[in-house]
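ingest -> fold -> write
write: protein_1
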Amino acid sequence: MTTNSLSRKLMVADACCRHRLAHKTVIAPPSKCKPTGRRVRVRYVLTATASAAQASNGSDGQNMQHAQSVAGDAQHSVSQEPSPSITQRIKKLFGGDKMDMQRLKALGLGAVASYGCVSNVTYGTGLSISWIAFVQQTGKSPLMPNQWKPFLALYGGFWAAQHLIRPLRFSLALAMAPVFDRFINWVQQQTKWKRQNAFAGYLFLLGSVTSITVFGSIRLFAGPIAFATI
């Protein structure tokens, strides 16, 4: 690109910036711009372009190189996307169940029912294992005085593991979604209920079966002391 061609383009940019200033368009200086949002990045590019246009008023080659450098820095700053912070990553990891449910709702009640079943199985298994292990290690029930906090410390490891395998649970729920969809349709046909009522009946059945299975297994493998309170 020749010097005259570049000068003409910078003059056009200068005219555009002066037009915006004439209509009271405020452009923040580059030093105060943080490229964290689209609007701010656009203003940063306009500001850098104006700086390049002002640099083109000189006739020497040093000003031209300075204008090219400013414009290049502006384009480089726009191309960079802010990386998520550690807090945002942790929030995404432990808040993923809510996002998964929002995605599953768009796929229908069958997918939501499937995910609910998979989650109940994994969380129920973790609760059963941690409860039984606590009773066998301490000889006490988590329901006894001053035993609930130590139990929660043990169960916290199983709870965190559920979030690490969340992608696997989500994939498994999608694979099993047609089966649960057919089951809800069967309940709807047998009871003549609306689909929402059939889904509510499924949730009640799922909760009942999960509770009986979890606490029944705890009572079976941990013994009578599992639910003792004194």
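write: protein_2
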Amino acid sequence: METKLSFDSRQKTLLLSGKTHFLHSSNIELKLNHILNTKLANIEVFGSLSKHIGIGDISTVRKGFDSRLRLSAGVDFASSTADTALVLKAKKQYRIAEKRRISRGKDFLDSATDIRLKARYDYNFQADSWSGDAVAELSHASFKVNDNMDLRVSLGMKGSINRGRVSQMQPVLRIEENCWSFTTDCKGIWHVDYLL
């Protein structure tokens, strides 16, 4: 289970969350995310059940990198509302540069630069409406910047999907270092996560 602390500029509340997932050999996945709001002293549970497929050559999949087109369909639910959503997702990434080295007969990845394209489109059954978002980002990761530090910097554009069109595009910056990450946009809204 992945446990983390989160804080953002909107809610201004420290959140403690635990995320776990169960993946069947048929690529059906159940995800559960428990969030404790330390200000309101309440717990919400978010869940998703989805089926994943990869389109492309399986031999191109390497540890930590999958260049195939990844598609998924499923349902999302939350304990705090009766809303249930049908969720469609797509993800594609391209490795445009990498630096490797051989040490003591082993192959190590020192750095990598990727382009990632992601989209999500939801149908809310109760509201009878579609909505979603799309992200395109350029990401550079440097591994073993020093003995104990890996660093990834991602810069991208995120937009809303309404009626099949992407609009309201805005830049997003994310910096990740081992256990923590910092995300912000051009409006000054920011979010910090720390993995425990």
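write: annotation protein_2
DSSP finds no helices and twelve strands in the chain.
The radius of gyration is 18 Å.
pipeline exit 0
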